[in-house]
Amino acid sequence: MTDKSRPLSEILGGEQVPPHLARSVIEERLRSAILDGRLVPGQALRQQELATLFGVSRMPVREALRQLEAQSLLQVVAHKGAVVAPLIGEDAMDTYALRVILESEALRQSVPRLGPEDITLARSYIAQLENETRHAEIGRLNRLFHMCLYSKASNKKLLRLIEIELNEEERFLRFHLSSMGLGKLTQDDHNALVDAASDKSVEDAIHILERHLNKAEITIKAYLNSRTAE
Q1: What is the pTM of this model?
Q2: 187 and 213 housed in the same domain
Q3: Cβ contact 85:41 at 8 Å
Q4: What is the 3-state secondary structure (H, E, C) of 82-138?
Q5: Total domain count for the chain?
Q6: What count of other Cβ atoms lies within 10 Å of the Cβ of residue 71?
Q7: Cα distance between residue 116 and residue 104, in whole Å
Q8: Cα–Cα distances in Å, from 80 out to 46, 77, 83?
Q9: Same domain, yes or no, for 151 and 37?
Q10: What pairs with residue 44 in β-bridges?
Q11: Domain that holds residue 25
Q12: What local confidence, expressed as pLDDT, does residue 1 receive?
């Protein structure tokens, strides 16, 4: 049985949620299920079905779905409503070009302001990534590592835009590792990036980041080419 044919109660659990927490709880349940692949691309999420499942009105469900749409995890499709967004959009190459611009600027703003505790935290994520084999957790830790290094950027809207793009990469990374049968990824670029950040070498950090993102872009391009050939 595929995930698309499984009832939502089996995927999400059916316990009732307190009304005052409904929006945030439903958003997090759906977000986690999308990121770890239990809710698959194209799967419809109907407001009434979710409201009944969680024992709430449709209003908090509608708000949760809007938040997930803003994070590019859902799309609104005519005659279907909210559906889980594709794993990688057709504009993936443009997305990576944009990420280089956004994340380079975030490093430029953040690196001079990073403290020893930020560097220690970033290294702890690398250590966890070295030993982690669960694909969903690898994706989560990868996102947290990057956001840790960008966290002291002064432009908070910039950080929100970057986190949206990292959410998309988290989904793809989980899928890619699983489909390739890989347990983990090398941490060489991450180690070099945090070393440069620790030394306050902003331009070196940006160069390493660009190299890192270019490798990811090659992986995405190969995936899209394989889909086209099918």
Answers
A1: 0.70
A2: yes
A3: yes
A4: EEECCCCCCCHHHHHHHHHHHHHHHHHHHHHHCCHHHHHHHHHHHHHHHHCCCHHHH
A5: 2
A6: 17
A7: 21
A8: 8, 5, 7
A9: no
A10: 83
A11: 3-84
A12: 41
Spatial separation of the C-alpha atoms in residues 45 and 9, rounded to whole Å = 12
Cα 101 to chain center, whole Å? 18
Cβ 62 vs Cβ 97: under 8 Å: no
Listed residues 62, 84, 106: the one ending a domain: 84
- Where residue 69 sits, what CATH number does that domain have? 1.10.10.10
DSSP label at residue 3: G
pLDDT of residue 2: 45
- At 229 the pLDDT is 62
- Tens digits of pLDDT across the chain (230 residues): 445 557 787 788 767 788 788 899 999 899 888 877 788 888 999 999 999 999 999 999 999 999 999 888 898 888 788 999 887 666 667 778 888 999 999 999 999 999 999 999 999 999 999 988 887 788 889 899 999 999 999 999 999 999 888 877 777 776 666 554 445 567 999 999 999 999 999 999 999 999 988 887 777 777 767 766 65
Alpha-carbon distance of 74 to 168, in angstroms, equals 11
**Which amino acid is present at 215?**
K
| Residue 156: HSE in the Cβ half-sphere, 13 Å Cα cutoff | 0
Structure tokens that stand for 123 in this block: 């290294």
> Looking at residue 40, what DSSP letter applies?
P
Which tokens belong to 144?
A: 């947290």
